[in-house]
Each structure stands twice: as structure tokens, then as C-alpha cells.
Design a protein that fits this description.
Pfam families: Radical_SAM. This protein has about 375 residues and is of the alpha/beta class. The protein is built from 11 helices and 13 strands. Bound molecules: iron/sulfur cluster.
């Protein structure tokens, strides 16, 4: 904590704490509060830190409300996927996420019935959309709203995959009741005569440290798995929490032996108040390289997320660096065509720091993080 009072910061720790409290909200569920008392890696993810006052990052990495095509709660970036955010709130605020920002507190908390109907008509109108991701906020906070959305998404003939993104299984494992698991499983349908017409529903569960896999949490996702629902684990790479081979190996192995399929390892996004959580992008590549002898055939896909979509990178990938305004950025040519992005996302122009190469593909610049401790000073 001494770094925080380093003279380079020019502010006392107390001033920084007041700044953090003024800018950011704090929320924890009862189960999480109990767990945070027993686990330092969990506490660090939910208890405000003076480091959040460090001047850095953007408040809205993506437009809050995901308001594409004039439909509140709808987002589309890729040809084959649409994202619905029926419920914008979470039962707790992760300190590395933009949800904690007070300036977002006034946003509408949920899609209205009209918003949902408009979004469904939009998805129905484009048979290229095969996957609907229902995310948040957290869709499991309001299961009735989730059921209402599932009832409308499931019958759309061209929808093959429904994915639900959640962290609420950690926050409120008791809410994953047998009835909830059965309700979700209803939206799974195997067509034995024409398998390609089957419909799959799966859960993307965000967990970042093995301490989060408590008996209650494991029982909760096992209730889903026993109903035939695939549960995939997605992890955010967080400095001081899981950025070591031992922490990541323990998490990966526990995922595998309790039935979670490892899915994404996300680099921590450059959101305001999250500077102290961000490692370099290279750090994640190095970790996966070191894990590769252990993880067998199943490991995480490593991605960093920009406003134009995910960038997948794997060990052996050579990152290209450029300096912009004194900061280190990763430059890459993406697999996404600019014309496609503009059409799907209903944007007139690319986001800042993005361009188009001669073949029409988007080039992007992503703000890197740092591994050195002194960046906090
Ligand atoms: S649960 Fe997800 S959306 Fe909610 S605060 Fe945490 S990371 Fe952000």
C-alpha cells in the first residue's frame, strides 16, 4: 500500500479513498461478503481499493445499454451472433468492471417488453444470426425476465445456440435452484433426424480464482450440469489474483475435475479504476505457454476485447507494439472486415484508434497493461 502514497501520486491515501467512494459504487451479496472475509483473492476483487483512484481508462468501454439498431439492450458486432442484455444490474460489482461506475447508475435497469419484442423481430429478420448471447449485468438475477426472453428466442428457427453469461452463481449460489436448472434445460433440443437443426443452451460462468469454487457454488453449477447444460468457465486475468502459473493451474484443474469446460481467459479491459488489475497482454500468453504441458487438450482461449470484437491470441503469437501519447499499445490486424462491422453494429464509423487496411480489414490498437509494481506509483 506504500506505493499509493508515493509522492508521484501527489495525493494521500485518504484523499484517494474518498475519490473512489465518490466515483464508484460498492455492492456485495451475503454469500460473497462471507467468502471475502476468508479469501484475500476474493476480497481484492470486491472491496474498493485506493488504487481505483489512479487516473486511467475509459468509463464506458462499450456503450452502456448496448443500443444497436435503436433497440435498447441489443448489441451486434458479428455476423452470426446477437447479444441481449435483458437485465443490466449485478448482485455485486467486480472492481475491475465498469459496472461500478456511479455515472452509469442512472441507466435503465432492464429491457422493456417493447425492447424485447423489437430485439426478437430484429433477430428473426436475419437468418445469418445463429447464436444469441444473453448477458448483463446478470440475467440470472431476474429468472422470470430470463424465461420470458428464452421463450421468445428459442422458437426462432435459425437460432442454434443460446448462451447465458453469468457470475451470479458465485454471488448467490442458493438462487440456482433445481427449478431454475430445469427451466433453463427446457431450451435444449436435440433433433436426432436432422442434428444440424438442434438447439443448445449453455452457461458461461465467470470465476477468477479457485477460492470462488466453494461447496455451494460447485453444487449450484452441478445442478445445471446434471440437467444436461454445458457450463463453460471464463476467467479475467487479474494482477495479484490469478496471474501466476500456480493460481491458474489450480483453477484450470478444478474446472476440469468439477465439470466446467475452460472457455475464455480475458485480458482485463482498460476501464476506469482498473489499472492496478491489468497485467501485460504478454503475461497471459506466457501463462498459457507454461500451462500447456499440464492442461492436456483443454485450455482457455486467450482474448482481449475491443469495441469491434474479440482478438484471439495463443502462445507463440508475436505482439506488435506502438507508442501512442506515451502509452504502449498492441497493434493488430483483425479478422473483421470494416464493412461488416459497420453493417452489423449499425455504426457509421469505426471506434477511435481503429483503421482499415488495404484489404478492408480493421486494424486496432489496444492499450496494454504492465507487470511491474512501480506502475502503481
Ligand atoms: S458480474 Fe460481470 S458485469 Fe457484473 S460487475 Fe462483475 S464483471 Fe461486471
Amino acid at each position: 500500500m506504500n506505493n499509493v502514497t508515493n509522492e508521484k501520486v501527489h495525493r494521500t491515501e485518504r484523499e484517494m479513498v474518498l475519490d473512489v467512494i465518490g466515483k464508484f459504487r460498492t455492492k456485495m451479496s451475503p454469500a460473497l461478503s462471507r467468502l471475502a472475509k476468508q479469501s484475500d483473492p476474493v476480497a481484492k476483487q470486491f472491496i474498493p481499493s485506493p488504487y481505483e483512484a489512479l487516473d486511467f481508462g475509459t468509463e464506458k468501454p462499450f456503450e452502456e445499454g448496448k443500443n444497436n439498431h435503436g433497440i435498447y439492450g441489443l448489441e451486434r458486432v458479428y455476423e452470426d451472433r446477437a447479444v441481449l442484455t435483458p437485465y443490466f444490474e449485478c448482485s455485486a460489482y467486480c472492481r475491475y468492471c465498469f459496472k461500478k461506475s456511479r455515472t452509469l447508475a442512472g441507466s435503465a435497469k432492464r429491457m422493456s417488453d417493447e425492447d424485447i419484442d423489437k430485439a426478437i423481430r430484429f433477430i428473426e429478420s436475419d437468418s445469418r444470426i445463429r447464436t444469441v448471447l444473453i448477458t448483463g449485468g446478470d440475467p440470472l438475477v431476474d429468472p422470470r425476465l430470463l424465461e420470458k426472453v428464452l421463450d421468445k428466442v428459442f422458437p426462432i428457427p435459425h437460432i442454434r445456440n443460446i448462451r447465458i453469461g453469468t457470475r451470479n452463481i458465485l454471488f448467490s449460489p442458493e438462487k440456482v435452484t433445481p427449478d431454475l436448472a430445469k427451466m433453463i434445460a427446457r431450451y435444449q433440443q436435440i433433433d436426432y433426424d436432422e442434428p444440424r437443426k438442434s438447439k443448445n443452451i449453455s452457461i458461461g460462468l465467470s470465476l477468477n480464482h479457485v477460492d470462488e469454487l466453494t461447496p455451494e457454488v460447485v453444487r449450484a453449477y452441478q445442478r445445471l450440469i446434471r440437467e444436461g447444460i454445458t457450463v463453460r468457465g471464463q476467467v479475467v486475468l487479474l494482477k495479484g489474483i490469478n496471474d501466476s502459473v500456480s493460481a491458474m493451474r489450480e483453477l484450470l484443474e478444478t474446472f476440469l475435475c468439477t465439470g466446467i469446460v475452460p472457455y475464455y481467459l480475458f485480458h482485463c479491459m482498460p476501464v476506469v479504476g482498473a489499472k492496478h488489475f491489468r497485467t501485460s497482454v504478454q503475461k497471459g500468453l506466457d501463462l498459457l505457454q507454461e500451462l500447456s504441458p499440464y492442461s492436456g487438450t483443454t485450455t482457455f482461449q486467450y482474448v482481449y476485447v475491443t469495441p469491434i470484437g474479440k482478438h484471439r491470441i495463443a502462445p507463440g503469437h508475436q505482439l506488435e507494439y506502438v507508442k501512442i501519447d506515451g502509452s504502449r499499445y498492441i497493434r493488430s490486424t483483425t479478422p473483421y472486415k470494416a464493412a461488416d462491422f459497420l453493417e452489423f453494429s449499425d455504426n457509421r464509423e469505426l471506434p477511435p484508434l481503429h483503421g482499415i487496411n488495404e484489404e478492408g480489414y480493421i486494424t486496432s490498437h489496444y492499450l496494454d497493461g504492465h507487470d511491474e509494481e512501480e506502475i502503481l506509483a
